[in-house]
Amino acid sequence: MEKAMIFHRAINEYAYGYDDETVHLVLQTKHGDVKTVELIYGDPYDFEQKTWNYMTSPVERTGETTTIDYYKAKVTPPNNRMRYGFKLTGHDDEVLYYLERGIFSELSKEIGDYFCFPYFHQSDEYRAPAWVKDTVWYQIFPERFRNGDPSISPDNATAWEEGVVTPRSFYGGDLQGVIDGLDYLEDLGVNGLYFTPIFQSPSNHKYDTVDYYEIDPHFGDKETFKRLVEACHDRGIRVMLDAVFNHSGYEFAPFQDVLKNGAQSKYKEWFHIHNFPIVTEPKPNYEAFGFVSRMPKLNTQNKEVEAYLLDVSKYWIETFDIDGWRLDVANEVDHRFWRKFRETVKAVKEDVYIVGEVWHDSMNWLRGDEFDAVMNYPLVDSLLSYIEAGTIDQQAFKDRIVHLLHMYPQHVTEHLFNILASHDTARLVTQTGDSVDKAKLLYLFQFSYPGSPCIYYGDEIGMVGGEEPESRGCMIWDSSRQDLALRGFIQTLIKLRKTEKGFSNEASFNFVERNDRSLTYEKVSTEGKLIFVINPTSEALQMVSYAGDVLLSSNEGETVAPYGYRVIKQ
Fold first, then answer.
1. How much is the pLDDT for 544?
2. 411: how many CB neighbours lie within 10 A of its CB?
3. How many CA atoms lie within 13 A of 497 on its CB side?
4. Which residues form the Glycosyl hydrolase family 13 catalytic domain (predicted)?
5. How far apart are CA 156 and CA 202, in angstroms?
6. What are the pLDDT digits (tens) for 519-570?
């Protein structure tokens, strides 16, 4: 066995409390190098004379890539504490003992050589709202979803859907429009709404906040928003708002004070200003979102800024009973602030959902003291690279997915915010080269993968559009121009997500090896097994005969249609 490839650490995704009784321990080895793995564990104080009383348990292999095999032990620590190690047996029957202090050919008698799980404090472990795992989200860009009150539309608003969408276009979408669209959303089956910013701002996207305590007047007022939240809750729909705490807008009162009073401003420490006087062109002489001068970066390490933003985070929960915060540019804000943010909002509403916008490996924010989840961009990037672009082959795709399934603790993965498109990307059908069939494959994978899936408004009816601003077009309400077949397919997926454990987070996910070009995986739950067969090619593929009932299929017969699918329930 290749010793250099054996890896475990007693922290983060390798050792964590999954529930109030169970600890998960993850081990990596070289692919194909190990025949069996056993866990050796026991109470670190349980000795008879000088002999440690330990137990053993087989460890399951939970995934493999071309280079790595993953093993996961699920164990209840005796007396809430344990020392542990791994016994590895190779295919040639070589035996190694992998402990914290190294690799041994014989089982060590020194308790200090073993990995340590000192004490199982549930308060230290990751905990996220239970309701999230059963939530299907729908993202709304308020300015473009529906115009319910034309009397508050901007003076320069264009008639709905008319003209070319530009970065400065206004069409008059508002909160009343969302209320008017709740019957549609309930019929679709979603039970969570994620709103991009609704606070006062001069832009159509509202990511340049002017007043964090006020709703933009072109969207409505607080009474309207209160009615919206209550109407959602009456229908069993949760509401999540977007918080932009990394930066403010240029018109934000404290920044305007800095522009007016310069170095004498009492707010100068609220921002990261390099020198005075303030310069905005060609690049600002202060930190900003990217180099966008109209979005000055807030100094969240400043106590006044911290107090202001934490009060904002409480206000919208206390006053309107919102259910979640999505945090914009979350990876550029200091960890200390996010830890205080979590303590603040959870004290007001324990099961509020906290989602960070982080596009990369996010373990640093998901240890249980900051976020409940992040937006799962690595998932959609992998799906598009494989099914749409073909820039990675099937094995590379499997490798990426297996890695993603082991990147975080299992219960973190079960709460991730899984998107396929958003206001920051092109629309899904456009990303798939205008192939609705490919889009269906992506949705099928999304809804059968662990996490909490999200649909970008209008994608369910086949709306098209490239990168922003094209992807922020007006919602099409004329049913004759909607792709009702695609909408019906998504409705079916949402129902299956709610009724079949094999589609939910209560089922394990594993790829099935096949000697053809189909992508096959299985979800196993207490109700049995679902087998998913996806054809990511432009040719019909012969279908392997599986016992069971066809739960969902793109076509009948012994083949799976090009860019088709079949789901079998066993």
1. 85
2. 20
3. 29
4. 139-497
5. 12
6. 999 999 999 999 999 999 999 999 888 999 999 999 999 999 999 999 999 9
Asked whether 320 and 226 are in contact (CB, 8 A), the reply is yes
Nearest CA to 118 out of 8, 44, 52 is that of 44
Told to judge if 357 belongs to the known catalytic residues of this protein, a careful annotator would answer yes
Half-sphere exposure of 203 (CA within 13 A, CB side): 19
Owner of token pair 């993850």: 26
- Active-site position among 357, 372, 459, 500: 357
On whether both 388 and 241 belong to a single domain, the answer is: yes
Intra-chain end-to-end CA distance of the chain, in Å: 37
What's the mean pLDDT in 67-84?
97
Task: Clarify whether 549 is annotated catalytic.
Answer: no
The position carrying tokens 């003076």 is 155
* pLDDT tier for residue 514 given thresholds of 50, 70 and 90: confident
d(CA 400, CA 264): 53
User: Which of 81, 99, 124 corresponds to the end of one domain?
Assistant: 124
Q: Please count the other Cβ atoms lying within 10 Å of the Cβ belonging to residue 79.
A: 12
Cis geometry, peptide bond prior to residue 378 (ω within 30 degrees of 0):
no
Q: How many domains does the chain have?
A: 4
Enclosing domain of residue 67: 3-124
Query: pLDDT tens digits for 100-132?
Result: 999 999 999 999 999 999 999 988 899 999 999
Q: Is the pLDDT of residue 515 over 80?
A: no
User: Do 36 and 139 sit in the same domain of this protein?
Assistant: no
**Residue 179, pLDDT score:** 98
pTM of the model: 0.96
Q: What DSSP character marks residue 12?
A: G
CATH code (residue 140): 3.20.20.80
- The overall average pLDDT reported for the chain is 97
Alpha-carbon distance of 490 to 185, in angstroms, equals 12
Q: Which of 328, 459, 460, 522 is catalytic?
A: 328
318-337 mean pLDDT: 98
Average pLDDT rounded to a whole number, residues 222-228: 98
Nearest CA to 567 among 525, 524, 526, 522?
522
Q: Assign residue 549 the CATH number of its domain.
A: 2.60.40.1180
Instruction: For residue 335, give every residue at least 6 positions away whose Cβ sits within 8 Å of its Cβ, in sequence order, or none.
Output: 364, 365, 370
Q: What is the mean pLDDT of residues 393-412?
A: 97
Q: Is 59 helix (H, G, I), strand (E, B) or coil?
A: coil
Does any domain span residue 229?
A: yes
